[in-house]
Amino acid sequence: MENSTDEEELIQPCMSIRPADLGAFRERIRNAAVNAGVSHERLGDLTLAASELMSNACEHGVRACVAIVRVGKLIELRVTNTASPGSVPPPSAWSFPAPESATGRGLAVVGAVADATRVTWNHNRVTVSAAFSVQ
Amino acid sequence: MNASRLSIDEISPRELRVSGVIDAHTAEALETALTRQGTDGDITLDLRSIDFIDSSGLRVIVTFHQQLSDAGNRLVLGGPNESVIKLLEITGLRDHLHLTE
Fold first, then answer.
1. Cα dihedral value A134, A91, A14, A84, nearest 10
2. From the candidates A26, A27, A51, which should be mutated to test the interface with B, based on the most B CB atoms within 10 A?
3. How much is the ipTM here?
4. Which DSSP helix (H) or strand (E) runs through B61?
5. With an 8 Å Cβ cutoff, is A48 touching chain B?
6. What does pTM read for this prediction?
7. pLDDT tens digits for A40-77?
């Protein structure tokens, strides 16, 4: 999803996530995105994606953290946690469940609002990334 | 606003007004409030003061929509703002749930 020639700039180093802190983290991520030049129109989408990814990480993994990186003209959220290898599906498999289903929408919401998404594994650590273009 | 806060007020019998955020941290409080209402009759959830909602909030809404439907009643979502409606449209739930202004 990224051009390997684009230089990465770390905007927000990895912050450990706890469920009780989700609201505070959304605010920090929102402020960092504003400072990085994300348009007001995209802030809602970025904040929603951040909330979904952080919630998933807290629910399914331990040692969860979120970082923000600028990659060329994209601002990328990167949420990392420990997980059983393969337990997070690739973005191509993210889909919405039937309306009657109570759960299973988080990653599909991220896929719907982000400009690009990616899942990468490093042994038992998974990073789910969601990128948003800077206007 | 407090970025982590959800307030729930019973403004009339079987009508709850929720204000603030519904996320993975606060969804349980909404679940508890709706459970207290039971399924014997429609419930209106006034969403006009919601600042943020994600799929954790949808989980609670869909769960109680199903429970009330099974009992022959409805969960009515009142005054959903633009961001709530957008999330319902993205997830394909707008036509599945009962919305009112």
1. 180
2. A51
3. 0.92
4. helix B55-70
5. yes
6. 0.92
7. 889 999 999 999 999 999 887 777 899 999 998 899 99
